[in-house]
Amino acid sequence: MLRSRLVVAPFLHRKTYSSAFANLETGRASNLHSRMSLVANRVNSGTVLRACPACVESDAKTVGRAWWHVQHQLLGCLVCLKHSEPLFEVPVQRRALILPSQINLQHDGVLEYVDVQLTSLVDDVWRSRTSLLAYQHITTRYRERLVETGFASHIDAIRQDKLRQALCVYWVTSASPAVQRLLLDSSYPETLFRAKRAQFHPLKHLLLIGMLWHSWREFSEYKPCECVTPDRVGANVLNEGETDADIVRLLKQGKSLRVVSKQCKRSVIYVKKLAHGPSEYLVQI
Question: Does residue 30 sit in helix, strand or coil?
């Protein structure tokens, strides 16, 4: 639990974080995993120990004994950043002492770029040692970036299908079973934006951050461009060829605003604006 503390911190509501670790310090830790969403669907953590073959060899030579390195056990870590080696895994055994030196270190692991990137993200969050943002501002930052990258017409109209497909393509080569299980979750990443008071597993945030910013530093230093500042978010609606005409056609056929909004991947506000827009688009509703 302690090894994940600083990786989890930026993605928890402040009160939840303070309360959870106050309970941990006093020995009341029975429900901490559920409170911090570490038992979220399709994401399992704490079931394996990981080690780098080069670290095991180096430890044995320098101090005479290998140990489990904390940074290798962090959520989402798959690579030793020091030696650029894939980490090997061994299942946790509750009643047995397992040492890295007891494990067969021979394996044919493949080093994927996205796994190096994800490990770097986790390591940077861990080493930052501070909670970067108030939790409520994180999804706003996501929305602003999604507008810039074309995954949203404005901050309240995210193209969820397009975003989900892009996430799957970006992370498809990851060797992490947790990542692959998460990509099979049809509710991800939509729930990050729908359930405003919920807590989510840090991996769900890190996959989105990795695709949109590539590094923790870029995410930390991000400033939205002028097109998504609060006074212009409604003016940044994308016009894609005949889409507007298609919206009007569907409205004239008697379809509701919400049905057209979902079918054409536009917000209800945008559809309504077209319905009451210029005379050539005027629709009786």
Answer: coil
Q: What CA–CA distance (Å, rounded) separates 163 from 254? A: 29
- Rounded distance between C-alpha atoms, residue 170 and residue 218, angstroms: 18
Give the start-to-end residue ranges of the domains of the chain.
2-128, 135-235, 243-281
Per-residue pLDDT of the chain (285 residues; tens, 9 = 90+): 444 445 566 777 667 667 776 776 776 666 665 555 555 555 656 678 899 989 999 999 999 889 999 889 888 888 999 998 888 888 887 778 888 877 766 666 677 899 999 999 999 888 876 555 566 678 888 999 999 999 998 877 899 999 999 999 999 999 888 899 889 988 899 988 876 666 788 889 999 999 999 998 899 889 887 666 554 444 333 333 335 667 777 888 888 888 877 777 677 777 777 777 543 333 433
243 by Cβ neighbours in 10 Å (0-12 / 13-18 / 19+) ranks as middle
